Each structure stands twice: as C-alpha cells, then as structure tokens.
Amino acid sequence: MSADETQLPDEMSRVLSLLSHEMRGPLGVIRGYLRFIEQSDEPLSERTENAIAAALRASARLADLLDEASLVAHLRLGDVPIDRARMALAALVESGVTRASLPKETVAFDAASLPDVCVEVDHERMSAAVATLIEVTARSQSDRAVVRIEGEQLVIGDEPTVRLRIIAPVAHDLAISEMELNVVRGGFGLAVLLAAMVVTAHWGSVRELYAGDRRIGVLLALPIM
C-alpha cells in the first residue's frame, strides 16, 4: 500500500479522531432510547420489535466503525501504544481464524505446515487484523470457496521475513500476481484500512493477490524475530 493510500495528513487525522469522539454521544442517546422502548412494559408489535432489533444492530455496527476510525486516526498520529511480544506464527494465525466471523468450514489451514517461527506482535491488534483479512477474502468469493492460509519463510533484503497467503482456490493454469493494496480500487471498507495500518505499525505489509483480473486473496508479510 502506498503512503498516499495508508496515511492521512495529521490535520485530517485529528479531525477524524474528534469526529468519532463527538458522534459517540448522540449515538449513545439513540441506543439508550431504543433499549428503553425495547424494555418497556408496554406490549410491542412484532414489526416494532423487529425494527428495534435492526436499529440496535445498525447502531452497534456504527459504534464499531467509530472505534475503527478513531484507531486509524491515532495510529496515523503515532499515539497508539503497540504492546509487542513474541508469538508463534501458528498461534497468531489460529487466533485470527478463531476471531473471524465465519463458519469454521470456510477456512482451511494446517498449523504444522506453517513456518516454525515467531513474530513480535501486539496479540490483540494483530489477531484482529488477520481476522479482518480472512473475512474480506472469504466474503469476496461469490462461490463461497474455502479460503486457505499458507506460509513461507524467506529473506527480503537482509531481513528474515514470513509471508502468509490468505487465498481462495484458483485454477492451476492461472498465474498469481501481487499488487499493492489499494483501498479505493478494491472497494475495501475502513476495517481493511485499519488492518493494513496495524500491520504497517509492526513493520509489515499487506498486498493483494490476483489471478487474472480476479482478486483471490491477500499477502501479509511480517519480519521474523
């Protein structure tokens, strides 16, 4: 991902942080009134109950988006503490798979086949980033194909590096190419931008994988510690 696509100017980052903070107040009031109506002693029609439930789900999603927007802004401003600790690569992947909001049968990986290496990561933030990348890969496949997670160890420059391919099945006769992650071109949401920035904060990178003109996955690279 290029600097222009991952980084916001400092002033815009501050505005984004302030906006996400200021919106939490009105959103809290809305959710509070919805809960008040939901728990009222007055009988509600099924249609009203369904409408309240839908509104609460939407407001919860908006709250998550505000949290993500705030974290993107603070990552850009450099005031988010990254609590790094050594972690086995297989444990990181397993944690990300567990966190992904997907049926278990849609993700396939063999921990024993991954490189037996450790990475230095903030477990909470990086496992969430891995989960997001798994989810966006799985949901972009119209045929609901099983997403595979594969790893390789190599040296890039002088740096020992591990690369994870989160990828959907592809015909053997199609060459796989890499491209810089482009949030706008790819139609990605804020969660993917946040995941990429978390990886960047760990001295890593995220790239898109294509077979022809079809996006089939992502490539996550992290330094080995």
Description:
- It is a single chain.
- With 225 residues, the protein is an alpha+beta fold.
- It has two domains: 75 residues; 139 residues, Heat Shock Protein 90, CATH 3.30.565.10.
- Helices cover 48% and strands 23% of the residues.
- It is built from seven helices and eight strands, in the order H-H-H-E-H-E-E-H-E-E-E-H-H-E-E.
- The strands form two sheets. The protein has a six-stranded mixed beta sheet.
- A hairpin with a 2-residue loop joins strand 4 and strand 5.
- It is globular and about 65 Å long.
- The N terminus is likely disordered.
Summarize the entry for a quick read:
This protein has 225 residues and is an alpha+beta fold. Helices cover 48% and strands 23% of the residues.
Keywords:
two-stranded antiparallel sheet; Heat Shock Protein 90; 2 domains; six-stranded mixed β-sheet; single chain
Gyration radius over CA: 20 Å
Instruction: Give the DSSP E fraction (strand runs of 2 or more residues).
Output: 15-25%
Structural class: alpha+beta
What number of domains? 2
Strand order in space, largest sheet: 2-4-5-8-7-6
Would you identify the CATH architecture of the largest domain?
A: 2-Layer Sandwich
Q: Stretches where pLDDT falls below 50 for ≥5 residues?
A: 1-8
Shape, per Cα inertia axes: globular
Report the order of strands and helices: HHHEHEEHEEEHHEE
Distance between the termini: 23 Å
Helix content, binned percent: 40-55%
Mean pLDDT: 83
Q: What is the makeup of the main sheet?
A: 6 strands, mixed
How many strand units? Answer: 8
CATH topology of the largest domain: Heat Shock Protein 90
